[in-house]
Amino acid sequence: MKKDKILFVIPAYNEAMNIEKVLKEIKKDVKTADIVVVNDCSGDNTREIVENNGIKCITMPFNVGYAMAVQTGIKYAYENNYDYVIQFDADGQHIAKEAEKMYKTMKEDNVDIVIGSRYLEDVGYPCPFFRKVGTNIFKKIIKIFCKKTIADPLSGFQCLNRKVIEKYSKMGNYPEFPDANLIIEMLLSGYKIKEVPTKMRIREFGESMHGGIIKPIKYMINIFYTIVFILLKYSGKKKSEVVKDEK
Amino acid sequence: MKSSYFVFIAIAVIIIIFIASSVKKSRLSIKESFWWMIGSIFMLILSIFPGLVNWAAKIFGVSYPPTILFVFCILFLIYMVFRNSKRIAVQQEKIVELSQQIAILKNKDK
Fold first, then answer.
1. What is the value of ipTM here, to two decimals?
2. What is the CATH number of domain A6-246?
3. pLDDT digit string, tens, across residues B35-46
């Protein structure tokens, strides 16, 4: 049997303080997988650190933002014929060992996307106020429109199969914030999504991209607005029709 | 009720539908459509409640109420045009950067 090719896609922006630890952890715990770091034009020495560790580093010519960096990694996976992609954060929040659990679930349950969830079971992850409100609102919206419970729609820790890799890499309008809106779009398009409870750490150094007060508000408005259009796009279309369309 | 009342509501609704369908057909990105949508919803609100213009005129002490409308429209359009100029400038820089990098890559092996 052919061995599956797995790729860790790690978008990184000024993560020199965290990235080395993350890479060492993946190399130690998931020996069979390849890693690609998409360096989003960092101002620090992220690139040097990654390359010194013998890891493939794609450096963007200018800052393209988190989502486009992720998509770049997914495109790389598509072009290099990877079977599975694991989206992994560079800040050390995600635990490499948990990725194996997600990969196993994907194989056993035959789903397209596996989300590493902090809130499916109580794994002891502290939840800031804004995140809690956001998570609950998006959870409700997904429940209403997709009839499915996703406990952690804001998780960036995901495992994607070849079908999803192809879809994401060819998406011209890959969203700026690929969170709940993308999950809704994928569910409405007929893709199968499953959650797996995973442990996560709190970031050690640097700032989260959703820090402050204005940014989360902007983020929420953006996601809501996008969801309205996604619902509009898929209104009146049955799931089977959508899947047929894409073929 | 004046017939112009319904005409303005119809115009606002048509603009909203036009923006939404452009986004649906991927001719306009969701992000770019945001401020146009806000502007047209604002227009719809004003056409449903024309009294708001008189009320705003009173607050700002303007004797001829439609002036308020013109001022808001012009400010909104200035904002949109300025925003576009800013984007064009940024994109111009990015295109130059990309062309330079592609040129270097293409001539690497020669």
1. 0.80
2. 3.90.550.10
3. 999 999 999 999
